[in-house]
Amino acid sequence: MKYYEIATGYTSIPAKIGAATEKDVEGQTKSMVKMGYDVVIVDINDSDRADTNLPITEVYMPQFFNSAKVVSLGIVHKVKRVLYSISLTHKLHNIIRKSKEPIYLHFHNQYNMFFFMKLTSKSLLKNVTIGYTVHSYIWYGKYENIKETIKKRYFQEVFCCQKADRLFVLNDVVTKMLVDNYSIDPTKIRKIFNGVDTDVYDETTVSDKEIEDTKAKYGLQGKTVVFQVGSICPRKNQLLSLQMMLPIMEKNKNLAFAYAGGIIDAEYAASIQNLAKKSGMKDRIVYCGEVPPGAELNKHYVMARFTMFNSSAEAYGLVITESLSASRPIFVNEHLIESISYWKENEGEGIIRITSDFEKKVDMLLNDEVYYQSMKLKSRKVAYDKLSWDASTRLHMQYM
């Protein structure tokens, strides 16, 4: 069988900006190639694509659609999604018609699969198996609170889940929501996890000089850094993380809070900076911008003593695995630990639950070196042994 991983068209692979789904497609394909599977990524064309050895076939779109302005969410971006999906459909039709063997198409975006299915005849799909992974965070919460949003903005995803031959989810919440409310056949649903590239996110690849240089870029020389990664918006809860850290930073003048991610909500981003000014610790509260994934992001994880992930809703939470792989313990809020089984199963293995005794746990990481080193070792071990892309791909391929 020939496998095609269908990239979303949001930005080209390898991603040069924070793009979790693109990192997922890249990571799984790398692992599949290593394991000997015949796999190709179908991706938006990009004359400025980052260097890669991955097998990629391109879908034509004007280069304008790969600019940073178009990648930012807005009406033009939505138009891009539709146009890319139509162009992608044409590309896939050509691939299917030329193929002499069974084909597996693995979609990761609702627009892409929705338009493909609507514009493709059943006869063309006789030797094609369709897979779809639900990456959306929207499925969290009570159904009564999200059903109107799903009806207006995620009706395509419901359609994709109904039409897919293989349906992959990242947590049990999505399974229950789809089965209970949309009559999705539970026998075709499989829970998987998104892996991490343990070769890229690895503290041993970063020198002491690179750590100090990264800190110096933000004026944090000699500081002990706490780091959080994620798009700057209320859902990612950077403001709450900072509020939790401020009393500790007040007592520890050597402690700094750094955060990175693309700005989705400018007003929210401004509120973080306003709090930084009011706290009187603005020089120790630093926005790092949108850090490119891979080696550069790894340096930022490694410059930190520990990291935080305080999101109110996630399908999975890739930055957790990245932090663990970089040997950095990570604080995760109780909601995510309770709703995503992978984090609950590995709690204590570098994953620290945010509870009422948060300050005590932070103090242990800062001042108990034996405890801190053991948590670092546990972080790396759980990422390498259980959460790598190779482990994820082996699980995934059982169901393909």
Please name the defining characteristics of this protein.
400 residues; Rossmann fold; six-stranded parallel sheet; 16% strand
Biggest sheet record: 7 strands, parallel
Mean pLDDT: 93
What percentage of residues falls in helices of 4 or more residues?
40-55%
CATH second-level architecture of the largest domain:
3-Layer(aba) Sandwich
Name the beta content range.
15-25%
Structural class: alpha/beta
What is the number of helical segments per DSSP (H or I, 4+ residues)?
17
Supply Rg: 21 Å
CATH homology superfamily of the largest domain: Glycogen Phosphorylase B
What does this structure look like?
The termini are close together. The longest helix is centred in the N-terminal third of the chain and has 24 residues, at 75-98. This protein has helices spanning 20-34, 68-71, 75-98, 110-118, 143-153, 155-163, 172-182, 208-217, 238-251, 266-279, 295-303, 318-325, 334-339, 341-345, 358-367, 369-386, 389-399, and strands at 2-6, 39-44, 56-59, 103-107, 128-133, 166-169, 189-191, 224-229, 255-260, 285-287, 304-309, 330-333, 351-354. The chain is α/β, with parallel strands linked by helices and 400 residues long. It is globular, with a radius of gyration of 21 Å. It has 17 helices and 13 strands. Strand 11 (304-309), helix 12 and strand 12 form a beta-alpha-beta unit. It folds into 2 domains: 2-196 and 389-399, Glycogen Phosphorylase B (Rossmann fold, 3-Layer(aba) Sandwich); 203-386, 3-Layer(aba) Sandwich (Rossmann fold). Helix 5 crosses helix 6, helix 8 (208-217) crosses helix 11 (295-303) and helix 9 runs parallel beside helix 10 (266-279).
